[in-house]
Amino acid sequence: GNSSVLTCTPKPGISMVTWKISPKVGGPCSLGYRTDQNKTDKTNCSDSINWKFTPDQDPALEICQVEPAHEGNYTCEVVAADGNFHETHLLTVLVPPRLTLYCDDHGNPMCEAVAGKPAAQISWLLESNSTPKEEGHDDGTVTVLSKFTAYGTNMTNTTCTVSHPTGNWSRSIAC
């Protein structure tokens, strides 16, 4: 959902800049710029992918509202007086999970980290013999579900902790 800017080092005497994009999902696309004609060209790229500034000033690429479909290789090729230069960026998209905590029909606390990328880690404040279950989705996200099972303890309040590269969250519930 955020914007991402991929840099391409400007060189003196640029005659051409090309971004070649190979996403994991969908077909390739490219953006090109020729200084002699002051002309840009865009082939098969979505509206969310474009030059950040004018390519003659700064050849950076901007992706608006990044989503998992944007993952892939982004290569900037610069043709300048000093030669040809390539820079490659590998874009990986992180998606924070949505945390839900509820009681199942038997009064067991259930903790769910919904649609995160990569899969979140779930733990309980008190020891539990729970084995989390993972469900993959078509968009590359993963939902993790964990049921708290206490070792013969009569608990009134249980805390679930979700760890993910985008952050950590805790919630408590009494079932």
Describe this structure in words.
It holds the Pfam family V-set. Belongs to the CD200R family. This is Cell surface glycoprotein CD200 receptor 1-A. It is found in: Membrane. Keywords: Disulfide bond, Glycoprotein, Membrane, Receptor, Transmembrane, Transmembrane helix. The chain has strands at residues 4-6, 14-23, 29-34, 39-43, 49-51, 61-63, 72-80, 83-91, 98-103, 109-116, 121-124, 133-136, 142-147, 158-164, 167-173. The strands form 4 sheets. It has a 5-stranded antiparallel sheet with strand order 4-3-2-7-8, with no helix packed on it. A 4-stranded antiparallel sheet has the order 9-10-13-12, with no helix packed on it. Strands 1-6-5 form a 3-stranded antiparallel sheet, with no helix packed on it. Helix content is 0%, strand content 51%. It has 2 domains: 4-91, Immunoglobulins (Immunoglobulin-like), CATH 2.60.40; 98-173, Immunoglobulins (Immunoglobulin-like, Sandwich). The mean pLDDT is 91. It has 175 residues and is mostly beta strands. The chain contains no helices and 15 strands.
For this entry, give a set of tags.
4-stranded antiparallel beta sheet; mainly beta; Immunoglobulin-like; 15 strands; 5-stranded antiparallel beta sheet; 175 residues
SSE blueprint:
Elements lengths: L3 E3 L7 E10 L5 E6 L4 E5 L5 E3 L9 E3 L8 E9 L2 E9 L6 E6 L5 E8 L4 E4 L8 E4 L5 E6 L10 E7 L2 E7 L2
Antiparallel strand pairs: 1-6, 2-3, 2-7, 3-4, 5-6, 7-8, 9-10, 10-13, 11-14, 12-13, 14-15
Family: Belongs to the CD200R family.
Subcellular location: Membrane
Protein name: Cell surface glycoprotein CD200 receptor 1-A
